[in-house]
Amino acid sequence: MKVRFGLIAAACALIAMPAFAQGKLNDAQIAHVAYTAGTLDVEAGKQALAISKNSDVRAFAEQMVKDHTAVNEQALTLVKKLKVTPEDNATSKSLAAQAAAKRAELGKLSGAAFDKAYLANEVAFHKTVNGALETTLIPSASNAELKTLLQTGLKLFQGHQQHAEQKAAALK
Q1: DSSP 8-state class, residue 22
Q2: What single string gives the DSSP state of each residue in 89-101?
Q3: Contact partners, residue 76, CB within 8 Å, separation at least 6
Q4: Who's near 68: CB < 8 A, 6+ residues apart?
Q5: Measured between alpha carbons, how far is residue 125 from residues 83, 131, 156 in Å?
Q6: Residues 78, 21: contact at Cβ < 8 Å?
Q7: CATH code at position 161
Q8: pLDDT at residue 21, as a whole number
Q9: Tens digits of residue pLDDT in 79-130
Q10: Would you give the DSSP letter of residue 24?
Q11: Range of 29's domain?
Q12: Maximum CA pair distance of the chain?
């Protein structure tokens, strides 16, 4: 249950901050961003598993794949319960485009260079997630259950950021 909240928050929050300048997201848009973000981090983790030989990096990537797969399952359950149909939006599209570019960039690397770049990207991702949760997603959520879920998730997702920072620091 604890992981579920953190993961939903994580998935909800993989957001490029400039995309939010376009206006407040509604709950249906937040749900779509959540699912898109979760999918993108699963893809990043799978890429790391395909490329990295470092056991610590692989363990971290495995955890991200596991956590974000679980969050997407939970996010779908939540939107069905709330009777919200996820709505595609500019933020989701921007996220997908940015993630594709980052995967292409990382795909050109191998060994220690890949490991460092992957973990640096995960640190940046988690910082962005936490900031987006605090300043945009939580304030934009109108459904009380969704808002509570995001608030709980923020606390747990901060642990993901610390884990990524520790792994990145250990590679230096």
Answers
A1: G
A2: -HHHHHHHHHHHH
A3: 35
A4: 7, 10, 11, 38, 39, 41, 42, 45
A5: 29, 10, 15
A6: no
A7: 1.20.1260.10
A8: 39
A9: 888 888 888 888 888 888 988 999 999 999 999 999 999 999 999 887 887 7
A10: P
A11: 2-171
A12: 47
Number of structural domains the chain divides into: 1
Single out the residue of 117, 90, 119 nearest to residue 105, CA to CA: 117
Token pair recorded at residue 76: 């779908």
Question: Contact at 8 Å (CB) between 32 and 87?
Answer: yes
Amino acid 45: pLDDT: 95
55 half-sphere exposure, CB direction, 13 A CA radius:
0
Cα–Cα distance measured from residue 4 to residue 11, given in angstroms and rounded to the nearest whole number: 10
The residue written with tokens 């993630």 in the block is: 99
Six-digit token string for 56: 């610590």
**Cα torsion angle, 27, 29, 33, 35, sign:** positive
Q: What is the pLDDT of residue 7?
A: 35
For residue 8 the two structure tokens come to 């939903």
**Pairwise CA distance, residues 123 & 138, whole Å:** 21
Closest CA to 74 of 163, 149, 155: 149
